[in-house]
Design brief:
Blueprint lengths: L2 E3 L18 E6 L1 H4 L11 E5 L7 E3 L22 E7 L18 E5 L20 H9 L4 E4 L13 H8 L4 E3 L12 E4 L10 E3 L3 E4 L2
Parallel strand pairs: 5-6, 6-7, 7-8
Antiparallel strand pairs: 1-11, 2-3, 4-8, 4-10, 5-9, 9-11
Helix pairs in contact: 2-3
Length: 215
Protein backbone atom coordinates (compact mmCIF):
# COMPACT_ATOMS: atom_id res chain seq x y z
CA UNK A 1 0.00 0.00 0.00
CA UNK A 2 1.68 3.27 -1.07
CA UNK A 3 2.36 6.11 1.33
CA UNK A 4 1.71 9.56 -0.14
CA UNK A 5 3.54 12.53 1.38
CA UNK A 6 1.25 15.57 1.73
CA UNK A 7 3.69 17.95 3.43
CA UNK A 8 5.92 20.78 2.30
CA UNK A 9 9.61 20.59 3.23
CA UNK A 10 10.65 23.06 5.94
CA UNK A 11 13.66 24.99 4.65
CA UNK A 12 15.87 27.76 5.99
CA UNK A 13 14.48 31.15 5.01
CA UNK A 14 11.14 29.77 3.80
CA UNK A 15 8.13 32.07 4.32
CA UNK A 16 4.92 30.16 5.05
CA UNK A 17 2.65 33.01 6.07
CA UNK A 18 3.16 36.61 5.01
CA UNK A 19 4.29 38.71 7.97
CA UNK A 20 5.59 35.78 10.02
CA UNK A 21 9.34 35.09 10.22
CA UNK A 22 10.98 32.33 8.23
CA UNK A 23 12.68 29.46 10.08
CA UNK A 24 16.37 29.77 10.92
CA UNK A 25 18.08 26.41 10.53
CA UNK A 26 21.69 26.08 11.64
CA UNK A 27 24.21 23.97 13.58
CA UNK A 28 24.15 23.87 17.34
CA UNK A 29 27.06 21.45 17.20
CA UNK A 30 28.75 20.94 13.85
CA UNK A 31 30.37 17.68 12.85
CA UNK A 32 33.75 19.33 12.87
CA UNK A 33 33.29 20.75 16.37
CA UNK A 34 31.95 17.44 17.69
CA UNK A 35 35.24 15.65 16.95
CA UNK A 36 36.73 17.19 20.09
CA UNK A 37 34.30 15.18 22.25
CA UNK A 38 34.52 11.71 20.67
CA UNK A 39 37.01 9.07 19.67
CA UNK A 40 38.98 9.53 16.43
CA UNK A 41 36.75 8.95 13.39
CA UNK A 42 33.53 9.54 15.37
CA UNK A 43 31.42 12.66 14.82
CA UNK A 44 27.83 13.80 15.32
CA UNK A 45 25.63 16.68 14.22
CA UNK A 46 23.16 18.48 16.48
CA UNK A 47 20.97 20.94 14.60
CA UNK A 48 19.07 23.94 15.78
CA UNK A 49 15.88 25.45 14.36
CA UNK A 50 14.22 28.68 15.46
CA UNK A 51 10.73 29.09 14.03
CA UNK A 52 7.19 30.17 14.74
CA UNK A 53 4.64 27.40 15.16
CA UNK A 54 2.90 28.30 11.87
CA UNK A 55 5.65 26.98 9.60
CA UNK A 56 5.32 24.63 6.65
CA UNK A 57 2.44 22.16 6.73
CA UNK A 58 0.99 22.49 10.22
CA UNK A 59 -1.91 21.46 12.40
CA UNK A 60 -4.14 23.78 14.46
CA UNK A 61 -5.63 22.50 17.71
CA UNK A 62 -8.51 24.26 19.51
CA UNK A 63 -6.01 26.13 21.72
CA UNK A 64 -4.88 28.06 18.65
CA UNK A 65 -8.23 29.88 18.71
CA UNK A 66 -9.54 29.33 22.25
CA UNK A 67 -7.63 29.92 25.50
CA UNK A 68 -9.47 27.02 27.16
CA UNK A 69 -9.31 24.72 24.13
CA UNK A 70 -7.22 21.56 23.91
CA UNK A 71 -3.57 22.19 23.15
CA UNK A 72 -1.35 19.89 21.10
CA UNK A 73 -0.50 17.71 24.09
CA UNK A 74 -4.17 17.10 24.82
CA UNK A 75 -5.26 15.94 21.37
CA UNK A 76 -5.93 12.18 21.34
CA UNK A 77 -4.01 10.27 18.71
CA UNK A 78 -7.32 8.89 17.45
CA UNK A 79 -8.17 12.40 16.23
CA UNK A 80 -4.94 12.72 14.21
CA UNK A 81 -3.81 9.34 12.94
CA UNK A 82 -5.12 6.59 10.69
CA UNK A 83 -8.33 8.46 9.95
CA UNK A 84 -10.54 7.40 7.09
CA UNK A 85 -10.08 10.13 4.50
CA UNK A 86 -11.97 11.76 1.65
CA UNK A 87 -10.78 14.34 -0.87
CA UNK A 88 -13.06 17.06 -2.21
CA UNK A 89 -11.90 18.83 -5.39
CA UNK A 90 -12.71 22.52 -4.93
CA UNK A 91 -10.39 24.84 -6.88
CA UNK A 92 -12.54 27.86 -6.05
CA UNK A 93 -12.80 26.99 -2.36
CA UNK A 94 -15.49 25.08 -0.48
CA UNK A 95 -19.14 26.12 -0.54
CA UNK A 96 -21.93 24.38 1.43
CA UNK A 97 -23.66 22.93 -1.64
CA UNK A 98 -20.56 20.85 -2.38
CA UNK A 99 -21.17 18.91 0.85
CA UNK A 100 -24.75 17.94 0.07
CA UNK A 101 -25.40 14.24 0.70
CA UNK A 102 -21.83 13.36 1.75
CA UNK A 103 -21.10 11.09 4.72
CA UNK A 104 -18.22 12.84 6.50
CA UNK A 105 -18.69 11.55 10.04
CA UNK A 106 -15.37 10.74 11.76
CA UNK A 107 -13.47 11.32 8.49
CA UNK A 108 -10.53 13.51 7.56
CA UNK A 109 -11.88 15.85 4.90
CA UNK A 110 -9.06 17.06 2.64
CA UNK A 111 -9.78 19.99 0.34
CA UNK A 112 -7.86 19.91 -2.91
CA UNK A 113 -7.78 23.42 -4.37
CA UNK A 114 -4.49 23.14 -6.27
CA UNK A 115 -3.22 26.33 -4.62
CA UNK A 116 -0.02 24.54 -3.58
CA UNK A 117 1.22 25.18 -7.13
CA UNK A 118 1.97 28.73 -5.93
CA UNK A 119 4.06 27.62 -2.93
CA UNK A 120 7.20 29.75 -2.43
CA UNK A 121 5.89 32.48 -4.75
CA UNK A 122 4.22 35.83 -4.04
CA UNK A 123 1.03 34.53 -5.68
CA UNK A 124 0.56 32.11 -2.77
CA UNK A 125 -0.36 34.97 -0.43
CA UNK A 126 -3.10 36.63 -2.46
CA UNK A 127 -6.56 35.54 -3.61
CA UNK A 128 -6.40 32.04 -2.15
CA UNK A 129 -9.35 29.58 -2.05
CA UNK A 130 -10.97 29.13 1.37
CA UNK A 131 -13.88 27.54 3.24
CA UNK A 132 -16.95 29.72 3.75
CA UNK A 133 -18.66 30.11 7.11
CA UNK A 134 -21.66 28.12 5.86
CA UNK A 135 -19.46 25.27 4.61
CA UNK A 136 -17.62 25.19 7.94
CA UNK A 137 -20.94 24.88 9.73
CA UNK A 138 -21.85 21.96 7.46
CA UNK A 139 -18.51 20.25 8.14
CA UNK A 140 -18.95 20.63 11.89
CA UNK A 141 -22.56 19.48 11.73
CA UNK A 142 -21.57 16.44 9.67
CA UNK A 143 -19.12 15.32 12.36
CA UNK A 144 -15.88 15.59 10.40
CA UNK A 145 -12.87 14.42 12.41
CA UNK A 146 -10.31 16.74 10.80
CA UNK A 147 -10.25 19.20 7.91
CA UNK A 148 -7.20 19.89 5.75
CA UNK A 149 -6.54 22.26 2.85
CA UNK A 150 -3.68 22.88 0.39
CA UNK A 151 -4.23 26.64 0.46
CA UNK A 152 -2.74 29.67 2.24
CA UNK A 153 -5.48 29.71 4.85
CA UNK A 154 -8.69 27.79 5.44
CA UNK A 155 -10.37 31.17 6.11
CA UNK A 156 -10.79 34.22 3.96
CA UNK A 157 -7.92 36.32 5.38
CA UNK A 158 -9.89 39.49 4.62
CA UNK A 159 -12.35 38.46 7.34
CA UNK A 160 -10.76 39.20 10.71
CA UNK A 161 -13.33 37.12 12.58
CA UNK A 162 -11.90 33.93 11.01
CA UNK A 163 -15.26 32.10 11.00
CA UNK A 164 -13.97 28.75 9.73
CA UNK A 165 -11.25 28.48 12.38
CA UNK A 166 -13.79 29.61 14.97
CA UNK A 167 -16.39 27.03 13.99
CA UNK A 168 -14.16 24.01 13.38
CA UNK A 169 -11.82 24.48 16.34
CA UNK A 170 -14.83 25.30 18.50
CA UNK A 171 -16.17 21.87 17.57
CA UNK A 172 -12.76 20.32 18.41
CA UNK A 173 -12.05 19.56 14.76
CA UNK A 174 -8.29 20.01 14.10
CA UNK A 175 -7.26 21.90 10.96
CA UNK A 176 -4.28 21.05 8.75
CA UNK A 177 -3.16 23.95 6.51
CA UNK A 178 -0.59 24.41 3.74
CA UNK A 179 -0.87 20.85 2.52
CA UNK A 180 0.43 19.67 -0.85
CA UNK A 181 0.19 16.81 -3.34
CA UNK A 182 -3.52 16.18 -2.77
CA UNK A 183 -3.85 15.56 -6.51
CA UNK A 184 -2.09 12.24 -5.90
CA UNK A 185 -4.91 10.96 -3.69
CA UNK A 186 -8.12 9.23 -4.78
CA UNK A 187 -11.46 10.64 -3.67
CA UNK A 188 -11.68 7.94 -0.97
CA UNK A 189 -10.10 4.66 0.04
CA UNK A 190 -7.16 5.91 2.11
CA UNK A 191 -6.14 6.58 5.69
CA UNK A 192 -4.78 9.96 6.73
CA UNK A 193 -2.35 10.97 9.49
CA UNK A 194 -1.02 14.36 10.62
CA UNK A 195 0.58 14.15 14.06
CA UNK A 196 2.41 17.13 15.59
CA UNK A 197 4.95 17.09 18.42
CA UNK A 198 3.24 16.74 21.81
CA UNK A 199 3.86 20.30 23.07
CA UNK A 200 2.04 21.64 26.12
CA UNK A 201 0.70 25.18 25.87
CA UNK A 202 0.97 25.27 22.07
CA UNK A 203 -1.93 25.38 19.63
CA UNK A 204 -0.09 24.85 16.34
CA UNK A 205 2.93 22.89 15.11
CA UNK A 206 4.30 21.47 11.83
CA UNK A 207 3.34 17.92 10.89
CA UNK A 208 4.44 15.26 8.42
CA UNK A 209 1.02 14.73 6.89
CA UNK A 210 0.63 11.59 4.80
CA UNK A 211 -1.91 9.12 3.45
CA UNK A 212 -1.89 5.34 3.25
CA UNK A 213 -3.70 4.52 0.03
CA UNK A 214 -5.59 1.30 -0.54
CA UNK A 215 -6.82 0.58 2.97
Amino acid sequence: MPLVDLSHTVEHGMVTYKGLPAPLICDFLSREASRAFYAPGTEFHIGRIDMVANTGTYLDSPFHRYAEGKDLSQLPLESLAHLEGVVLRCPQGLRPQQLQGLDLRRKAVLLHTGWDRHWRTDSYFEGHPFVTREAAERLAGAGAALVGIDSYNIDDTADGSRPTHTILLGAEIPICEHMTNLAALPAAGFRFSAVPVKVQGFGTFPVRAFALVGE
